[in-house]
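Here is the promised in-class demo. Please do not try to memorize the tokens; focus on the logic of going from shape to residues.
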């Protein structure tokens, strides 16, 4: 099923190395390819081992998840051979550290409780759309525009509102975002990065398992094992209720929470984008709330 549900710490390390190896062309690392068809996409295992200055047997053990304590020098040599960027290099180190201390018991899911003062902040940010999400992108709290910005998301039960689920499974998402392809690549990279250090976390494995079954696009991106995604400061929405609006986005970690993040969108006052944002806030159906409410406590739209 999902490779987030790995059987050991070395498995995730091996999967990352294999993904990077098969996506690295020989010419990218200075190798000359002879005539004839290559059966292996990207680098062969022996080629990477040679480039990194290690035996082929040792590298194969790493890729198969059987070598869980590579030295920092080995990791640095692999990073150089694969031309990893700084974020990918750090991810490789984190995977190796986790493999060395792997504990088979999955950690409990983090609390989804949103502190009252954070909900007050969401309300104070109006009319700017704002929301709080969990580490696995569950929508935990929002102000009216923060929910309405993702057209159609309010139609789902509160317990199903997850931005990754929305991007891949909601029929409106592809028309809402003109750069949908780039958006989902960044989304999967974020989840992949989290899976590398918390592959057995139940909140993550449930989401990844569902998306692997229901979305071929997600499954294809998941197999690439990208852990770095581009983040745009501005994002354009083709919104069915307020038209096209381009907003500046900012996200930040919330101190003292279990991985919760605040997302906020803004626009310059007096611009058409700001007018559309004001309209979105005015017509939003739900006031500020959060997904932990019981069904009978969920806010209802006013007639």
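The designed amino acids, position by position:
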């Amino acid at each position: 099923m999902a490779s987030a549900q790995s059987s050991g710490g070395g498995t995730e390390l091996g999967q990352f190395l294999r993904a990077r190896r098969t996506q690295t062309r020989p010419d990218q690392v200075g190798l000359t390819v002879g005539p004839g068809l290559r059966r292996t996409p990207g680098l062969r295992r022996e080629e990477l081992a040679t480039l990194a200055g290690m035996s082929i047997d040792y590298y194969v053990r790493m890729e198969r998840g059987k070598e869980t304590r590579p030295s920092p020098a080995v990791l640095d040599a692999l990073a150089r051979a694969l031309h990893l960027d700084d974020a990918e290099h750090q991810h490789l180190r984190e995977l190796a550290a986790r493999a060395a201390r792997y504990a088979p018991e999955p950690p409990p899911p983090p609390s989804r409780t949103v502190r009252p003062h954070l909900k007050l902040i969401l309300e104070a940010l109006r009319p700017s759309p704002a929301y709080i999400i969990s580490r696995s992108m569950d929508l935990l709290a929002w102000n009216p525009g923060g929910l309405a910005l993702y057209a159609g998301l309010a139609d789902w039960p509160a317990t199903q509102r997850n931005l990754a689920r929305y991007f891949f499974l909601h029929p409106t998402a592809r028309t809402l975002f003109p750069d949908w392809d780039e958006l989902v690549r960044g989304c999967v990279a974020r989840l992949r990065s989290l899976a590398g250090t918390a592959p057995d976390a139940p909140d993550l494995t449930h989401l990844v398992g569902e998306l692997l079954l229901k979305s071929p696009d997600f499954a294809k991106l998941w197999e690439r094992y990208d852990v770095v995604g581009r983040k745009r400061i501005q994002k354009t929405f083709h919104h069915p209720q307020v038209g096209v609006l381009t907003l500046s986005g900012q996200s930040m970690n919330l101190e003292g929470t279990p991985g919760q993040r605040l997302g906020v969108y803004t626009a310059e006052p007096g611009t058409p984008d700001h007018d559309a944002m004001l309209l979105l806030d005015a017509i939003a159906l739900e006031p500020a709330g959060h997904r932990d409410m019981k069904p009978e406590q969920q806010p209802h739209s006013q007639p």
